[in-house]
Every structure is written in C-alpha cells, then in structure tokens.
Design brief:
Number of domains: 1
Helix content: 25-40%
Low-confidence stretches: 1-17
CATH architecture: 3-Layer(aba) Sandwich
Largest sheet: 9 strands, mixed
CATH class: Alpha Beta
Radius of gyration: 19 Å
Mean pLDDT: 93
Distance between the termini: 37 Å
CATH topology: Rossmann fold
CATH superfamily: Alpha/Beta hydrolase fold, catalytic domain
Length: 280
C-alpha cells in the first residue's frame, strides 16, 4: 500500500510539474484617441500567461523601473516579470494566471537608457488608470473565465499597485506590493512623489507587503514599509547583494531568494496566510 501511495504521489507531482504557461497578447481599446495631426485609438496591452489547466485567478503584474513594459508581442513577457520570471511554473501549478501589464499607448514613451517619458505618478494615481485596467479585466473575464483579480507591483510598479488597489476597491481580491517605492527621486519627482504620503489604510481589499530586510535602495527603505505594515509583511532575508542596489538583482529584487518569495506570494493568494519571513 505504501508503495502504491508513493507511486501516486510521484505521479501527482510530475503532473503538477508539467503545467505550463501559454503567453497570449491582449489588446483593449480604452475608448479615447491620441495624436496631434492624426488621431489613433489608445490601446491598453497586456500579456496573459495562461496555465494549461483552467484557472479563475489572475495576478496582474507591474514591473519595476522604468515601469513601462513596452509590449509589442506575446514574447515580451519574461523581461517584464522581475523575479517572478523563472518561477512561472509555480504559479501554473497553483492555478494562478500571470498577466504582465503595460502602460496604455498614449503613456508608453521611453528614452534610451530605460528612462520613462510618460506613465508617471500623475497617470498612475488617476481614475483613468483604473478604468484602463478594467478594460483588460473585462477581456480576462469574458474570454478566459477569470473572476479573481490580484494586483501586484514591484519597486516603482508599486505606484500602480497601490493606486489601483485604492481606485478599484473591492473589484479586486487583493494587492501585493513588493520592494515598494516610498521615496521619490529628487531628479524625477514626478516618479514616486505620490507614494510619500500614500494612505495604506484607504485600501479596501486585503494587502500583502513583501520587502527585503536589508534593501539598500534609497527609494525603497525597509523601515518605511515596516512602519505601515500591519501583520501583512513578508520580510525576505539572505540572498545575493549583486549589482545595482536598486536594480533587477541584489537584495532589492530578492536575488537568490526568488523562489521562496514567489512561493510565499502564492501561499497568500491561495490561503490568505502571511509568512512573517522567508529565506533564512
């Protein structure tokens, strides 16, 4: 009997491990036009990573700096998923679709050197931003059967995740704020200023904060997040302090702790349970 159970357990594990994600480009007309001499419809783009088994839950993700995904095709997903990019199989196994979110076409301008020229806090804090996201949510509902929505941002992407959580209210099931930016750059104050006085108590749906305890980025101090978190903070420990302290690695982006961080996020989405720390 024990032998048979072991075979079953192995088969079940292999079945789960075999789950894959299919990238699908989504484009939604948001109902406005842009342009000076010739007008064109404004489009909100996203990439749905659809699990091979049916899912009713989506995690809508906003990347870190520059904050603009610049999506052209369905193949642009990986470079915009930060530390989740190599753990998509875990989300597939848990029945969670990943949705890489972009800025709409009228806010999608970026200069060489990864410097954004649009999609700043003025847009991200607006009801217009929430309305644009609702267009993608409608497609996910009507075409793919998604009924449960979580919004997640990493680093500068948390400007979107916080304001969308506020402006969407109970239309979403929860929001996740990873390595949250809470200090604006003195050079580019239009990017980050709204987070300095953001009221986390105004969010109606459940909230998860996840942050490295030794984050060295001056725009994302751990102490600020610790101060406003109320039993909803996962503190990441350990890892690799490699490269830019505000970049896509280092403690700021959980380098060396990507998998345990992803697993902790999945656990919260599935059960509501918060691990106080991971990576020790």
């Amino acid at each position: 009997m024990k032998w048979l159970l072991s075979i079953c357990a192995l088969a079940c594990f292999n079945h789960a491990a075999a789950q894959t994600m299919t990238p699908i480009l989504i484009e939604a007309d948001v109902g406005r036009e842009s342009g000076v001499f010739s007008k064109s419809p404004v489009v909100q783009r996203a990439i749905l990573l659809k699990p091979s088994t049916p899912s009713d839950t989506a995690l809508m993700f906003y990347r870190g700096w520059s904050g603009i995904a610049n999506i052209k095709t369905e193949n642009d997903w990986k470079r915009n998923l930060n530390y989740l990019q190599n753990n998509t199989d875990l989300f597939a196994q848990a029945g969670i679709a990943l949705v890489v979110m972009d800025c709409p076409s009228d806010e999608n301008r970026i200069a060489p050197g990864n410097t954004p020229l649009a999609c700043n806090d003025d847009y991200r804090s607006s009801v217009k931003h929430a309305d644009d996201v609702k267009k993608i949510m409608a497609v996910l509902k009507e075409k793919y059967g998604i009924t449960q929505f979580y919004i997640m941002g990493h680093s500068y992407g948390t400007i979107s995740s916080k304001w969308l959580a506020k402006n969407l209210g109970t239309e979403i099931q929860g929001s996740i704020h990873s390595a949250a930016q809470t200090v604006a750059s003195p050079r580019m104050r239009t990017y980050g200023y709204s987070a300095e006085s953001f009221d986390m108590g105004s969010l109606k749906a459940p909230v998860l904060n996840i942050h490295h305890g030794d984050d060295q980025c001056i725009y994302t101090p751990y102490s600020t997040v610790l101060g406003y978190s109320k039993n909803n903070l996962i503190t990441v420990k350990g890892g690799i302090p490699n490269g830019d302290v505000c970049g896509g690695g280092n403690y700021h982006s959980f380098e060396g702790r990507e998998e345990v961080s992803s697993r902790a996020i999945i656990q919260w989405i599935k059960t509501g349970q918060v691990q106080s720390s991971v990576g020790e």
